[in-house]
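Action item from last week, closing it out:
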Amino acid sequence: MSSSAVGKVLGASLLTTVGSLPVFLLATQSVPLRRELGFGEQRFGIAVAAFFTAASLVAIFGGGVADRVGPRVSTMIAGALSGLGGVGVALLAHGWLTLVICMVVLGSANAAHQLTANLAMSRSIPAHRRGIGFGVKQSAVPVAIVLAGLAVPTMTTHLGWRSTFWLLGGVGTVVLLAGLLAPGPTRSTAASARRAGLDAPPVKALLVVTAAIALGSAAANSMGSFIASWGFEIGLTPSQAGGLMAAGSALNVIGRLLTGHLADRRHGRNLPVVAAQMAVGGVALLAVSLPGVASYVLASLVAFAIGWSWPGLFLFAVVRIGREAPAKASGYVQAGAFFGGATGPLLFGVAVDAFGYETSWRIAAVVFFMAATLVLLSRRMFLTDLAARPPRVQLGYGGGRSRPRWTTEDR
């Protein structure tokens, strides 16, 4: 990968980190924040939900806008929203309602950051390196979690929780300035393509993709949120459960990178791999439900390493067949991921209270299997659309290493 491509990947990863960071800052600093603003956990949950709801809506409806205005203007919008939201929390959040409004702005910024990163990657990274590029980009989310955790013993302890949002506002301003100073036209070449009739992906298939990743994210994020608690229930110490989480997170990052690398070595057939990874996640959660320490540890590591290594590949696969609207296509993926990530842990917690951990893990496994089925259904719909409506740019698909199994006709 050239130095220019590496720079683009790192820039996209930075955008992903900045966009994801606010909700993790909110989570890691919830105790001092709630104490100062005077509200309980229920209202705190609504504030988190507001972030993800705004992100989902903007991801769906903002993808087409990003395709039209291009990466430069999209970067400026993302930076402006992050700066406004970060400064808003630091300066104006003196009650719950104001905080919620600011989290809506920051959720919109998150969607704008993700769409911008996806658009820039699809237009700037060589096609044979985009798999690993999206793997690196999606590994930035665990980085955001780490940064939010480090903020507590450093900035929060000495300067208060508002200082972290002041810093976030400053970073957003830097992103805005980077967009302003970026070379190239402010409008993308996709605008002219739109005037000639935008070659867009099939919306029905994208809706199935949205449902699939929502279910997959719901199951995966439930695992990430509750796997340590279940470990403590079956006999692990808190430090052992924490060590398992750290090891699982490391394997998860390695899995995402390896998955992206392997995707670059074949021509398509990525969605069946995503479905297989989700199915492995479902089997692993069935094993996690068994109350034995050995099976729990092994199954948890498999769930992290394989069962949750698909986000980058899923995004890459959909963007690859996104035709001339990669941001619009990725918007459906991001919206589903935001929605599933927000609702999954909430519903899993309700299930634990009602049925216990064992049954809840089995329900999450079924959700994984449902997600895998929908991924395969969406692939069939994409293949049908490629045959009936070949894209402007010839596309190889169906697998194969030296050459693709199938190739679309020229138009």
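Closing note: The two ends are 30 Å apart (CA to CA).
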